[in-house]
# Entry
Amino acid sequence: MKNWYLTCYKSGTPNLYKAQNLLYKIGVTTLSPSIRTSRLRSDSQTYRFIIEPLFKGYLFTFFDPEKVHTRKIEHCPGISHLVRFANTIVPIRKAVMEEIMRLPLCMNDATRTNHKITTSLKKSQIEQIQSIVQQQDAHARTALFLAFLEAIK
# Structure
């Protein structure tokens, strides 16, 4: 059965794009949510807006481990490893992925037309995801998300 899993890619945007392209070719769907942030320019006192991965170094993969072996994913150029909890890859809860896909920069045609998706997450968990996304520091955002996933597995 297909599920979403958290996958770590090697540092750098080129590795993210390379991994996404090669995973697509072996039948694995990927999602790398992005966020728009601002940074103070070093040459002036103005801000510039950039788009960066919501969780640097991580990408969501959707596959069936019975059909696509995890080694095939981990040996894909650009991929570092599948994230494990207690030495086991654990699927991300469907409700968590639905919340991730509802984020403004993550919306696609399927989620945009169906805002009435019900979720099994508690209101406090939804608010926790929203507060993680609002975290300005990319590394802190990622650490908070990993802790969140481990806490609700």
Observations:
- The helical segments are 13-25, 70-74, 94-102, 109-112, 123-134, 138-152.
- The first helix runs from residue 13 to 25.
- The chain has a mean pLDDT of 86.
- The CA atoms of residues 34 and 53 lie 4 Å apart.
